[in-house]
């Protein structure tokens, strides 16, 4: 078989001067390099925590679907065991900002809403998206979904009125409905009419517990909100009180998504009567005007819409809110405040350099002494740490601890440094002294290839990149470890602790698959030399 196709060789690892088995023993290196230009990576997840479906139908739709392949230049599209799908333009495809590639990723599975993700590729930059998958029968708390079918003429005109309603789960009594009237004209983003059989989807999130913001776009944060009537952007906003959200999706048999509807589709949702009106400091009631925002997933654009009025349904006695949806999008109802997308900003002064672990940080409100948020950030000398999505006109200080996201507490363990106060929205860097932060011990890996007498290594034949990941034993919580390239075969990482056990895995196709898994392996020394006998890489 020619080298440009799959040719695998078993690596025999010999550790330094002793006979210890190496953690990556047994990996196969493929000589078919993965595509790297224009790669789009999807990470699918089920927000309810259900096991991901094992059987999935992946389809590439849209005008340029024929030019999209996997990262191994095949059309065998599939999700890996982590729920990851990677695609890229075929090597012979020519594309640019003036002539971009347009297509959609479609993922179907039993009992799940169909995922349709429109994509535009205009350059070689890689894209990454995290996409939720909703099980209709087992949705996450506070969320319900429903779907039905409809039909249109060749001109995109709906032939018969269709109504769709959600069924609440458990004790949640809030319902949502959509009515697609006969005569409604549906068009896609380019103005083309939807044709033939349609699927209509309705997703409703109520406000019956504090988790509701987890299931609306942005997790409760709206970036670059466009004002009504063409006004200036309101910047970044955060929901203070979420009353509910409702999402409408309509697509045809070719997975062409409707964007516009004429006349508008009325969407009505019942409201939790204890939902909080943050502008009046009381629960909602009939006659309340509640702000409305729409979100276009394709353009990642938030838009302020005309507020709606809370009304009481005379038949059911329930409070309701109606959205006239002139576009198929997500609609979120609630009160929000303008916040600082970034600031204050802190600049690290430390002894660390090229350390690949992140350290525990806490933002403290100077006025109250309360912790505002906690996160992990890089603490190398010169690193910039930005506070994000904070309320305006607050003074915050940053605390950094000797505790990492990789192995927990370090030798000192506690608070290492604290910054001077900074004002939210301010982009002026404030230096934080972390000189007392000790450098963690590194683990070094070097790969050496040996060739038979009379031959020498041909680096062009080596895999372009080999990626490795690690996890705590049995957790299946994989984290990037190191990447070895053709010319850089000696790497250092601070993510592992000598004396601990880990699970390892490796990939030579950019992470689309992970053929090697080494479980429950003890890291018993800080340096590894992996000697590989592989005649196929020599000439």
UniProtKB/TrEMBL annotation:
It comes from Spirosoma fluviale. This is Uncharacterized protein.
